[in-house]
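Q: A reviewer asked whether we had any structural model of the full assembly, not just the individual parts. We don't, so I'm hoping you can provide one. Inputs are below.
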Amino acid sequence: MHRTKVNVATDVLDANETIARANREDFDRAGVRVVNLMGAPGAGKTALLERVLMEGLREFRAGVLEGDIAGSLDADRLSALHVPVTQLNTSPGFGGECHLDANMVRSALGAMDLQAIDLLVIENVGNLVCPAEFRVGEDARAMVSSVTEGEDKPLKYPLMFRACELVVLNKIDLLPHLDFSVDRFLENLEQVNPGVKHMQVSARTGEGVGYLKGWLEGLAGHRPEAG
Amino acid sequence: MHRTKVNVATDVLDANETIARANREDFDRAGVRVVNLMGAPGAGKTALLERVLMEGLREFRAGVLEGDIAGSLDADRLSALHVPVTQLNTSPGFGGECHLDANMVRSALGAMDLQAIDLLVIENVGNLVCPAEFRVGEDARAMVSSVTEGEDKPLKYPLMFRACELVVLNKIDLLPHLDFSVDRFLENLEQVNPGVKHMQVSARTGEGVGYLKGWLEGLAGHRPEAG
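A: Here is a predicted structure for the entire assembly that you could use as a starting point for your response.
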């Protein structure tokens, strides 16, 4: 039983890599840079995106692909900002997939006008496990971890924190009301992903959101060679 | 591809049900009632358990099975309370399973002295998706949702909120610092699981934790017929 399960998983991951590469080529050809945005449910992924998109990216046109199990709450919030938003619901398969995979993103490509954007942010399903295992064709992976989740999360979900190029520590406005040591969180992060870029922000107050905006602009400005 | 994936999933769930029933029979035979405790990463599952176990259950002896991808942080925290704690790490399979299944729990049965406890709390991996699909042999399922995660969670992760007999809304001490309407959360919950039992607590201040203690005691006191 266990051996069979592992084999199935390996096949699934192999197929996923192939499709992810095809997605990446399509994105490159269109000159679109792509971020896979991950984090636990309620970490503040959508709220952060709202903040960044409200301010607007300097010179660059952003689009969003929203991954959700059910509903279009996040897509509705974001489309109020006049940014192209595509909704991808995962619920038809297996009672709701707990992550986006490359094939799901591929199935959404036809619904997106890649010529109209420079940067695509793919908001993954809220989950600290499986999204880290499935590339979707992204240039970079960023994750949001909120201070309310606790300092221990890098040690408990190491693959997720290790898979990212950027860790955004969100909800720092709540620090005065919590027993959360930023230093200890960063020590734990350093243990699993030494030297990873990180920043501290509050989507609620806007503090530090400029750093994230700058990071996204830097990524968008780094044109694909084939672009 | 899609069709194949669904078939594999169905087979996996069928096998899981069979093993879950076997676990349930073993628990019943030993007179142990079992709770499957679920929630997002950082919702406060361990902190709530700590609070409850620190106060102790009236008349009943509790044990804990800790599901984690990696490490033993939670088990270490709980074992300080002199309660039997068994650690179950999911990391060998598939880069870390995102949920416990019946077979994982079965593999831990030999390490637990079921005669020494009346109530077993199984703390699942932090995840609002897959744990809801895999019964492990429990009598009841409870989930913890923290107010910092947002009011929309029942609508975004409906299967999880629907699968539970109890929803514990945690971190209510932070309400004054958040834009979170308890009424709206409860309306959303009512939409996906009408009439489900719910309670509001703070693991940090201890407010409302007595309700959870009472619920667990009620479950432990409801002896299995074969007990």
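A: Points you may want to mention in the reply: Chain A has eight helices and seven strands. The longest helix of chain A spans residues 2-29.
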